[in-house]
Amino acid sequence: MASQTVSDPARPEQTARKHRSGVSAAAPPPRRSEAQERKSGQVFTVVSWLVLIVFAVLWLIPSLWAIKTSLTSNATAALGALPILTDWKLTLGSYGTLLAGGDIWNWYLASAITSVITVALTVIFGSMAAYALSRLRFRGRRAVFLAMVLGIMVPPQVLIVPVFAELNAVGLLNTYWAVILPQVPSVIAVFVFKQFFDGLPKEFEESARIDGASFWTIYRRIVLPLSKPVIAAMSIVTFVGVWNNLILPLFVLSNPKLMTIPVGLATVQGSFGQRLSDIQASSILGALPLVILFVIFQRRIVEGVAGSGLKG
Amino acid sequence: MTASTLERPTAPVARPSAREESDVRRGEARPAWLFIAPFGIFYVLFLIWPIIYMLISSFFNTSLVAKGFGSFAGFGNYAEMLTLPLFWESMWHTIFFTIITTIPLVVLAFVFAILANRVRRAQWFFRLAFFVPFILPSAAIAIVWTFIYSPSTGLWDSLRTALGNPAPNPVLGTPDLALIGVAVTTIWWTIGFNFVLYLAGLQDIPRELYEAAAVDGASQWQQIKSITIPLLGRTTTLVVLLQIIASLKIFDQVYLMTAGGPGTSSQVVLGLVTDTAFTNYRVGAGSAASVLLLIVILIVTGIRQLIERAQNRRAA
């Protein structure tokens, strides 16, 4: 296995092949010459590249098409696909119109306020609950845990009618709170935090305990500072989820001034009529903050999403 | 305790005796509940209570325009839904959508991940292409794709005209095509999630296995068939079941792209729920439909538990 360390990790089969003559398999497989094998490995890699690139380009076309359309004038965009493709008099007119119009700023504001407050509350309250479940022994712990497992099985979308009725009953419709409060109890956040805390060494906390520190002090001064990676991951994943949520703000907000980006975009198609370029530009402006977030936090977002199993 | 001691055989501090431990443990209940309380209050108010409210109101003629639960309806709301052709039509659309999205979303994500893992370079580019759409708002996605599908002048229809079909059926305007159009959009939008789950699963497979297989003369395809696919079994279970549940909850794309139309040809259960509750103000009937959808989702979740338990038993 020593040769493994010096070999190119991307080509494990080359290293393996060197050992081949020394290995006698019990049931010899159909033998192929080394040259044949290397060739088949290379062919496979080339085919992999080709297939991936074809699909990746296919996957980029819709976004590129929207960007191209948004940079075309409304008049040209109304003529159809070919004129959009061939017209290279790029214009930022649509972006100018939208950014000067004002609605988009209200949407950005609403999305930013609701997302940031929800993230803060979810991360603080979720990590606190997770700390208790991970570290403290108390009667009812199993019951709390069971209640959370049950909660994870009920998708929030299914509860839109009773949540609306509740917010209506307490007079919170058409406030940011109607978007924020129902999204705070994310059971997945508690589980992800608990899993992380379970993996932290307990020695510091135990000696702090013996020195008389309260659990709150331990949570604040020892556990949270060690948890920056998971806090960052959960913050980003929660932010993306709240920013993109459509169904909740769609029904609890009807005041155009309070609309979040997704609700605002949902109204665009009808209200912009034939201004096709403006419509595409509004979609891109709505997606832009998340693209920027992705560029900055690429790894964290991918790991956070994969690690928490959060899906729309 | 044994497990954690085993994990850290060189624990620096001597373990406190059972007596000392119980002394330290005493008084943990109060702080524990205080730590749980803030989250717990939100949890009860916005998860537990809505579930209870949904169950109760599904047995009442609850309305948005009247206070309280309204008059008792017994199983009336359920009977109404279960005999309503539109309910079954929406349920079928939901299940049809789930089938036609889950299969490509799992198979394509698997293939993309295997290939991306194989080439190992330009990972950022494939993440950009396949993953970024997943984190964008459904409303932005719907705008882009509705435009691509727009009748005769859109990119898709122009392409088909160029390929010799002078008058292609508008995708979102044709009853048989609308849901398929929404499904294609959904595949494009959400494949990145399954893609990164599979990439993470692939990284857990030890490379030595492939090396050993290559030594024994296994071809690339044989390696994929007898190493990669079996060892990704758990990932596949996870991906498939998360995907089924995500597809059963379909609402955004249909609401934004077709509003359930043309007619009711792409209406899905959550669309019917919100129409019943918010357009017709009939919270009771909407709740009953929600409960029926929740039952379907819980059945899928139950199946997932059974499969995972079986897989764990086999692994043990």
From TrEMBL, chain A:
<feature type="region of interest" description="Disordered">
    <location>
        <begin position="1"/>
        <end position="36"/>
    </location>
</feature>
<feature type="transmembrane region" description="Helical">
    <location>
        <begin position="41"/>
        <end position="61"/>
    </location>
</feature>
<keyword id="KW-0813">Transport</keyword>
<feature type="transmembrane region" description="Helical">
    <location>
        <begin position="176"/>
        <end position="193"/>
    </location>
</feature>
<dbReference type="Pfam" id="PF00528">
    <property type="entry name" value="BPD_transp_1"/>
</dbReference>
<keyword id="KW-0812">Transmembrane</keyword>
<feature type="transmembrane region" description="Helical">
    <location>
        <begin position="107"/>
        <end position="131"/>
    </location>
</feature>
<keyword id="KW-0762">Sugar transport</keyword>
<keyword id="KW-1133">Transmembrane helix</keyword>
<feature type="transmembrane region" description="Helical">
    <location>
        <begin position="230"/>
        <end position="252"/>
    </location>
</feature>
<protein>
    <submittedName>
        <fullName>Multiple sugar transport system permease protein</fullName>
    </submittedName>
</protein>
<feature type="domain" description="ABC transmembrane type-1">
    <location>
        <begin position="108"/>
        <end position="297"/>
    </location>
</feature>
<dbReference type="InterPro" id="IPR000515">
    <property type="entry name" value="MetI-like"/>
</dbReference>
<feature type="transmembrane region" description="Helical">
    <location>
        <begin position="143"/>
        <end position="164"/>
    </location>
</feature>
<keyword id="KW-0472">Membrane</keyword>
<dbReference type="GO" id="GO:0055085">
    <property type="term" value="P:transmembrane transport"/>
</dbReference>
<keyword id="KW-1003">Cell membrane</keyword>
<feature type="transmembrane region" description="Helical">
    <location>
        <begin position="279"/>
        <end position="297"/>
    </location>
</feature>
<dbReference type="InterPro" id="IPR035906">
    <property type="entry name" value="MetI-like_sf"/>
</dbReference>
<dbReference type="GO" id="GO:0005886">
    <property type="term" value="C:plasma membrane"/>
</dbReference>
<comment type="similarity">
    <text>Belongs to the binding-protein-dependent transport system permease family.</text>
</comment>
From TrEMBL, chain B:
<feature type="transmembrane region" description="Helical">
    <location>
        <begin position="231"/>
        <end position="251"/>
    </location>
</feature>
<dbReference type="InterPro" id="IPR050809">
    <property type="entry name" value="UgpAE/MalFG_permease"/>
</dbReference>
<feature type="transmembrane region" description="Helical">
    <location>
        <begin position="94"/>
        <end position="116"/>
    </location>
</feature>
<feature type="transmembrane region" description="Helical">
    <location>
        <begin position="288"/>
        <end position="307"/>
    </location>
</feature>
<dbReference type="InterPro" id="IPR000515">
    <property type="entry name" value="MetI-like"/>
</dbReference>
<dbReference type="GO" id="GO:0005886">
    <property type="term" value="C:plasma membrane"/>
</dbReference>
<keyword id="KW-0812">Transmembrane</keyword>
<feature type="transmembrane region" description="Helical">
    <location>
        <begin position="32"/>
        <end position="56"/>
    </location>
</feature>
<feature type="transmembrane region" description="Helical">
    <location>
        <begin position="177"/>
        <end position="200"/>
    </location>
</feature>
<feature type="transmembrane region" description="Helical">
    <location>
        <begin position="128"/>
        <end position="148"/>
    </location>
</feature>
<keyword id="KW-1133">Transmembrane helix</keyword>
<comment type="similarity">
    <text>Belongs to the binding-protein-dependent transport system permease family.</text>
</comment>
<dbReference type="Pfam" id="PF00528">
    <property type="entry name" value="BPD_transp_1"/>
</dbReference>
<protein>
    <submittedName>
        <fullName>Multiple sugar transport system permease protein</fullName>
    </submittedName>
</protein>
<keyword id="KW-0762">Sugar transport</keyword>
<feature type="region of interest" description="Disordered">
    <location>
        <begin position="1"/>
        <end position="22"/>
    </location>
</feature>
<keyword id="KW-1003">Cell membrane</keyword>
<keyword id="KW-0813">Transport</keyword>
<feature type="domain" description="ABC transmembrane type-1">
    <location>
        <begin position="91"/>
        <end position="304"/>
    </location>
</feature>
<dbReference type="GO" id="GO:0055085">
    <property type="term" value="P:transmembrane transport"/>
</dbReference>
<keyword id="KW-0472">Membrane</keyword>
<dbReference type="InterPro" id="IPR035906">
    <property type="entry name" value="MetI-like_sf"/>
</dbReference>
